[in-house]
Amino acid sequence: MKNKIQLSSCSQSAMHISVKEALQQYTDSLEHQGMNWMQWMAECEGARELFAQQINANVNEIAILSSVSHAASAIATSIKPNGRRNKVVITDFDFPTIGHVWRSAEDEFEISFLRQNESGFNTLKDYETALSDDLLLFSTSHVNYYNGYKQNLKEISSCVHKKGGYLFVDAYQSFGQTPIDVKDMEIDFLAAGMQKYGLGIPGIAFLYVNEKIANELTPKITGWFGQVNPFAFDVRGKEYADGARRFDSGTFAMINGYAAHAALKILNGLDMKLVEKHLEVLSDVAKQEIQKTGLESRSQFQLTEKGSTTAVFFTNASEVEQSLAKEGIILSARNDVIRIAPHYYNTEEDVKTAIQALAKQLK
Ligand SMILES: Cc1ncc(COP(=O)(O)O)c(C=O)c1O
Fold first, then answer.
1. Which of 56, 63, 166, 176 could form a disulfide with 188 if both were Cys (CB 3.0 to 4.6 A apart)?
2. Per CATH, which fold does 5-14+271-361 belong to?
3. Secretion signal: which residues (predicted)?
4. Pocket perturbation via mutation, ligand 1, pick of 172, 173, 175 by most ligand atoms within 8 A of CB
């Protein structure tokens, strides 16, 4: 985007030229070829493959869905209580959609919410104390959407597994800005979409299901793409595909697949450790700059416990977002905070300029 400072990756990252071209390629295929199923499918499968690589999974451990809500619903409707093990614990970190999904299944599971402390985080000790031996599944976010708090997934998965439960990770706010290795972190389920730090657009999301678990689950939200052979055209049949592919359902959102494939080529070409380092530097710049103003940060964490997002308190956050957009500074409001969310392409100067503009809004 020319002549603007885009710092809204917690909501929508800047559009890369190759994503724009990919969107154009899809519309060109409609206009000039009418139909090109082979290519459309190849783009979506290419995106699946690159997403798998990005999180160190096998391609058969990834389902292509439409949103993170869809991914959470896919698990909530396929997992079963196991004897007395029926407790599903959600954190207050979780994006509201996760609560809505699991509460819709409260006739089947005992659902409880784990409160976050006043500074907006939980410690491992909190989890060790709160999770009991009848835990079925623990859901939490890798990076918090509101304040950017980043959790240590390896420690959390070890704690959850000691209690005998599964770990579901909502990685929508971390995917694309920090390394994720589902094998090393021993994650059971992970969902992420492309719109935020993923450099893509909404309408497509991926669900990772560990291969050791996937075939034990029978999806209820399903369809022909989740079958062993979608092209068997056997209306009476029901034979789920192997692995996470059983969670695919209907025709993929093709244009979103094009965008996701292009975005993932860019992401996978970056060194995610360097991206994370760069964003830590920008977080530090944001912290120093905020201290020079009367702004109130809601992201007072150690840099290693923080994703890119720095949240600043404003009672009229939405108005402030609109006002700064008029100055060409794109930030993202949520509730009572404005989020400054740089990506690998942002500079220290971008962050300073945004914070100085925010400080003027206090007057
Ligand atoms: C952490 C997190 N999870 C889930 C969602 C919602 O995702 P979707 O709209 O794809 O269901 C958001 C949206 O902001 C989010 O930040």
1. 166
2. Aspartate Aminotransferase, domain 1 (3.90.1150)
3. none
4. 172
